[in-house]
From TrEMBL, chain A:
This is ABC transporter permease. CDD domains: TM_PBP2 (cd06261). It comes from the Bacteria. Pfam families: BPD_transp_1. SUPFAM superfamilies: MetI-like. The chain crosses the membrane at residues 22-45, 85-108, 120-140, 152-173, 194-218, 249-271. The keyword Transmembrane helix applies. Keywords: Cell membrane, Membrane, Transmembrane, Transmembrane helix, Transport.
Automatic annotation (TrEMBL), chain B:
This is Sugar ABC transporter permease. The keyword Transport applies. Residues 84-295 form the ABC transmembrane type-1 domain. It comes from the Bacteria. Keywords: Cell membrane, Membrane, Transmembrane, Transmembrane helix, Transport. It is a multi-pass membrane protein. It holds the Pfam family BPD_transp_1. InterPro entries: MetI-like, MetI-like_sf. Gene3D superfamilies: MetI-like. It comes from Deinococcus aerolatus.
């Protein structure tokens, strides 16, 4: 656990010494966690301060919380929120429509080719967005998809589709094969196997996958910045308008930031366990 | 990576449905395949195509074929090599820091103590925060030379106020992105630690292993796969860092924090130099894929040896 050199290892250590050591480690853990959370805590506090308090130096720790900032941030927040919700939910739905059948087929008919297909799908994640942005931008311009929600949804689906296929594939392979076989004996069609067995039995996995896909689409910046400007601008573009604030409106910026990150924080905390699976594509369990 | 499919299922492939069904496995897979081909492979080939032309959106009708001219321009200008170097330093520096801090945090959290679950949950927060929020909050509220929290800390310790983003731009950006990605490393590494059976550690302790030996011979070998996953996933993600730079330094001062993605954004959307931006995009993809393939091979090889042993 620690690199503290111990003198005589096999000798049973004094119980009280272990207790002290454990307490010290716990205190360190809390201290590190607090340091890590500090930027977020500071942002949350600033959201409830007056502008003067928000960029006072020395910093103000005790203050009377106000809700002004949220009221001021809301008018410009809502259109961006609407775009973010539509883009995140829309792309998740589309990725599910395309990805669920693929995940099902790859899970129920596992061949070498299926394995290669899965690997290939994962490899599209290795394609940096900058490798495709130029033609996509020109294409979107010609098709009048720039600054539209359908355009944004199309790109976010590209981003989320490999994730959906991989995660759902790993959930669907966990369904006992005997269930499919029994259904087949009873004369179930492929469609029936998909809708009556695979989907209901992997429902919890679907929920976790959907949460992750929504989080990723919500937080995306590159496509948002380069393919939208005003009409379809999601929250990431809205927040970036604060990047030149030069010390002004910190409190209002914090309020907008809180409203932007809070839904994702809650989603992420809820889906914490599935996060590992999704982030490592099932490689670490 | 390959552990997702158990060998038992790959060998026991079921008989194909005999009756004339409309839904074949291929028909179920193709929509997703086609979508990904259309939105990733096709545009990438177009990027390669554009990269051979002197193509500027300001003069769209005149775009002469110049072969590898754009690549030559990119690779001979020392400023552009600086951008490639920045990309490597940013990704490499952040990766090492997140592994060290995330590993330490994982070990601290892999013990029983009150509030452990809550702390673990809260610790992942910075990874969930939108990169652009991280950038604007760090830039304005923490790194600001006059009113920023860090400047106040330095000043109250008797130091001179520091203009972090101007004086130490790369270090500041790395610190910011490390803050974001440490929870990712911690989460994966903690999961790796938790799958280590207790009896192995106990047996080692009974045999008189020191904590250091315990770490070296039991924890580390078991941890290897989790570490490799962190390295692979972070390498791919960190080579593509964009939002954090866009929201904080805009690649500056000068070229100090311009990485390849930000450079391409500038070339394509500020200078409209489609040809040059495309060539840089191709180079980024090649760089990413060389690293990713190399790392994937390493993971697969280790998986196989693990299974064999």
């Amino acid at each position: 656990m620690t690199t503290v050199p111990s003198t005589s290892a096999p000798v049973r250590r004094d119980k009280s010494r272990i207790k002290v050591r454990n307490t010290v480690l716990t205190v360190i853990t809390y201290a590190v966690a607090l340091a890590f959370l500090f930027p977020l805590v500071w942002m949350f506090l600033a959201a409830f301060k007056t502008e003067a308090e928000a960029f006072a130096s020395p910093p103000v720790f005790a203050f009377t919380p106000i809700l002004e900032n949220f009221k001021n941030a809301l008018p410009s927040y809502f259109p961006a929120l609407k775009n973010s919700v539509i883009a995140a939910v829309g792309s998740t739905v589309l990725a599910f429509v395309l990805g669920l059948p693929a995940a099902f087929a790859l899970a129920v008919y596992p061949t070498t080719r299926a394995q290669n297909t899965l690997t290939w799908m994962l490899s599209t994640k290795m394609m940096p967005a900058v490798g495709v942005i130029v033609p996509l931008f020109l294409l979107f311009r010609n098709l009048s998809l720039l600054d539209t929600l359908p355009g944004l949804i199309l790109m976010y689906t590209t981003m989320n589709l490999p994730l959906v296929v991989w995660m759902m594939h790993s959930y669907m392979t966990e369904i006992p094969f005997a269930i499919y076989e029994a259904a087949k004996v009873d004369g179930a069609s492929v469609a029936q196997e998909f809708f009556r067995i695979a989907l209901p039995l992997s429902a919890p996995g679907m929920a976790a996958t959907a949460l992750l896909a929504v989080i990723f689409a919500w937080n995306e910046v590159f496509f948002a910045v380069n393919l939208t400007s005003s009409d379809a601008a999601p929250l990431s573009v809205f927040i970036s308008s604060f990047k030149t604030s030069m010390g002004l409106f910190w409190a209002q910026m914090s309020a907008a930031a809180v409203l932007t990150v809070l839904p994702v924080l809650i989603f992420g905390w809820v889906a914490q366990r599935q996060l590992v699976r999704g982030l490592s594509f099932g490689a670490v369990k | 990576m390959t552990t997702a499919v158990r060998p038992t299922t790959t060998t026991a492939s079921p008989p194909a449905p005999k009756r004339g069904l409309k839904l074949t496995p291929a028909a179920l897979i193709w929509p997703a395949m086609l979508y990904l081909i259309l939105t990733t492979q096709v545009p990438f080939f177009m990027t390669i195509y554009y990269s051979f032309f002197n193509y500027n959106l300001v003069i769209p009708d005149n775009r002469p074929f110049i072969g590898f001219g754009n690549y030559a321009t990119l690779l001979t200008n020392p400023q552009n090599l600086q951008v490639v170097w920045n990309t490597v330093v940013l990704a490499g520096g952040t990766l090492i820091l997140t592994l060290l801090i995330g590993g330490a945090m994982a070990m601290l959290l892999n013990r029983n103590f009150p509030g452990r679950g809550l702390l673990r949950t809260l610790m992942i927060s910075s990874f969930l925060v939108m990169p652009i929020v991280t950038a604007v909050v760090w830039k304005n509220m923490l790194l600001n030379p006059v009113f920023g929290f860090f400047s106040w800390v330095v000043a109250s310790l008797g130091g001179q106020p520091v203009d972090w983003l101007a004086q130490y731009p790369m270090a500041s950006v790395i610190a910011m992105i490390t803050w974001e990605w440490t929870p990712f490393a911690m989460l994966i590494l903690l999961t790796g630690l938790q799958s280590l059976p207790d009896d192995q550690l106990e047996a080692a302790r009974l045999d008189g292993a020191s904590p250091l030996q315990e770490f070296q011979h039991i924890v580390m070998p078991h941890w290897t796969q989790a570490i490799q996953v962190v390295v692979l996933m972070e390498t791919i993600a960190l080579l593509q860092v964009y939002g954090e730079i866009y929201g904080s330094t805009s690649g500056g001062p000068g070229l100090a924090t311009t990485n390849l993605p930000y450079f391409i954004y500038q070339k394509a959307f500020a200078e409209y130099n489609i040809g040059l931006a495309s060539a840089a995009g191709v180079i980024t993809v090649i760089l990413t894929n060389i690293l990713a393939v190399y790392l994937l091979r390493m993971i697969n090889r280790n998986n196989r040896t693990n299974k064999g042993g």
